[in-house]
Amino acid sequence: MVESQRETKGSNTKANKQFLPKFSSQKLGVQCNCMKTMVSKLKEGEDVKLQASKRAFNFDNDRELIIAVEDINQLLSGAWLNISILQVLILALYESWDEFDHSTNALGFMCPEMISETMLYSDINRVLLYMSQSMATLSSKSFILCPYFEKRHWILLVICLAKSQVYIFDSMQKKRNLMIKNQLNLAFRTYKAQNGKSKGTKLNWIAAQV
Asked: What is the C-alpha R_g of the chain?
């Protein structure tokens, strides 16, 4: 199913409209070539829609993920990684794991769109509620993976609720004051309070070596 006239989310580059027919298929893997073939059949401005289970992203309702041709252009050319592509990856991982015994699944996810810098600026209360509810929903998981976008750069935050720790995977290896840090700390305290726990309400942030 396709939909027209949609602006690419999380994009900081202009799409190269001629990329799909011109880019050498020899430089792409099998899966990427399959993606390129599928997208090349779409008309300019059309989008791909995918149904996403509410459980994959800890939403209240099922939602549609919308992937624009520009999103895939930028991914395959190495120009940019849009939020929609990460959402599809998370959905694919979730559905793959869902085929196995849930008790062996040690990982959960937060939606990168819901915790992005843009959302923190536009609706911080909604983000806080989402993060604390996600922690409650995923409390049995060993780790919660949180792809986070700030200042045109992707960072992976990995939360371990049991140890009250957040691991920061940042390819730039720079000390930075992440906007999400105070809000994630507050969401963690809210999660703890709602579960009647007064001890260990402070997250320990650890920069991982990558």
From this structure: 18
Specify the pairing of strand 165-169 against strand 153-160: antiparallel
Q: pLDDT by residue (tens digit) across 138-190?
A: 999 999 999 999 988 999 999 999 999 999 999 887 777 899 999 999 999 99
| 71/9 same-domain check | yes
Q: Are residues 119 and 173 in the same domain?
A: yes
Q: Give residue-wise pLDDT tens across range 11-20.
A: 443 444 444 4
Residue 175: which domain range? 106-207
The answer to whether residue 100 is domain-embedded is no
The percent of the chain in helix, strand and coil, each rounded to the nearest 5, is 40, 20, 40
For residue 79, give the nearest of 4, 147, 17, 25 by alpha carbon. Answer: 17
Instruction: Please state the pTM of the whole predicted model.
Output: 0.79
The verdict on 71 and 127 lying in the same domain is: no
